[in-house]
């Protein structure tokens, strides 16, 4: 797959990746070159991404001069799940390929020959150079986002760089312990590889639970069956299959936590690097305590990488409980803010704020996602998060998220001047009004029509 990244402003921002002082420049300092880089990307992509061309024509945008010009060009996060579900359930792969092409930077050719389900289709797309990442879809449709090998490589390197920036210095001196099942995708496997190579003790393999892998196709099957059961069209045999698979997955989940607790106890004599979400780690901590172990039994320099709670229900003192169980400390915890639709990580600083990297423009919007909240010199300001990630090649980098955030554009207490996000991040979907992005309906309608 050909790419065209001969772009001076874009390249100068991406060259900052990995530098220790990358969060020092302020938003005001970076904005001119960020806008130049986004305009470079826009001029290169507007004739290639059908949805972008539509958004530009609808918004009357022909070039990027100010931050407000970017807003009409942003894709609602729902754009990546705007295909008709029937196409997926009825395995209309040619139509899905056309749909994917409307939100991708490079054309998506139909896959030739027989296709054995979603997992096979995704694998065959990889053979064309399209590394499609999918959200789990456990509560609804799967979002599908195209990417290149360069995107996957950048994401992997950026994660390791974010870990180092938070103060964790991998030196092949610890055992990596994963807590649970992870969707078996090329992106997930590639993202963790540089980290594993940097942290793992020689001759000590990272631990992951011995349970059947989860695949996107397997998750989709359960979503489909759940919908058929809800509308009363499921056959008795399908209901029985759903119940059996659900029961087995619950057993696998419980087993993965039990195995993780055993692995942590067995490896307590060596420094650890624990991977997972805080919710499952709390459950693992309970299992470890029930076996008679606590912080006094674990090495004092273990570390933990987490993306947060993700709606997990835990007691108020969950963090102290986890830290006391595994002898962890704040300075050895790496948390990052990110999302499936973008490629880069915003690591959390010592003052509990997520710092946005220079190659990613943070835009704060009103709740509808239509109006830009102008950056202010002081104070914290609340709104909907929108981001433009210049590291992305395989798809357009601008997205309106479903996150309600609090932003500061002035200097953080940690000493860095980059825009920073308060750790208290909410989902609009969890609020009384729900997640209602004004442009999402028109985007979905256009994409369906163009496909």
* Total count of helical runs of at least 4 residues: 14
* Percentage beta strand: 5-15%
Q: Which radius of gyration do the C-alpha atoms yield?
A: 22 Å
Strand count, sense and closure of the main sheet? 8 strands, mixed
Find the structural class using helix and strand composition: alpha/beta
Q: What would the average pLDDT be, to the nearest integer? A: 90
Helix content: 25-40%
Distance between the termini: 21 Å
| Total beta strands | 15
Overall form? globular
Low-confidence stretches: 1-6
What is the string of helix and strand elements?
HHHHEHHHEEHEHHHEHEHEEEEEEEEEH
Write the layout of secondary structure elements.
Blueprint: H1 8-14, H2 27-45, H3 50-59, H4 67-70, E1 75-76, H5 85-89, H6 93-102, H7 117-127, E2 133-134, E3 144-145, H8 149-165, E4 175-178, H9 186-199, H10 216-230, H11 236-266, E5 272-275, H12 278-290, E6 303-306, H13 318-326, E7 333-337, E8 346-347, E9 353-355, E10 360-365, E11 372-373, E12 381-389, E13 398-408, E14 420-422, E15 426-427, H14 440-450
Helix pairs in contact: 1-2, 3-14, 8-9, 10-11, 11-12, 12-13
Describe, in plain words, how this protein is organized in 3D:
- The chain has 451 residues and is an alpha/beta fold.
- The strands form three sheets. Strands 1, 9, 10, 11, 12, 13, 14 and 15 form an eight-stranded mixed sheet that branches. A five-stranded mixed sheet has the order 4-5-6-7-8, sandwiched between helices.
- Strand 7 and strand 8 form a beta hairpin.
- Helix 1 crosses helix 2, helix 11 packs across helix 12 and helix 12 packs across helix 13.
- The N terminus is likely disordered.
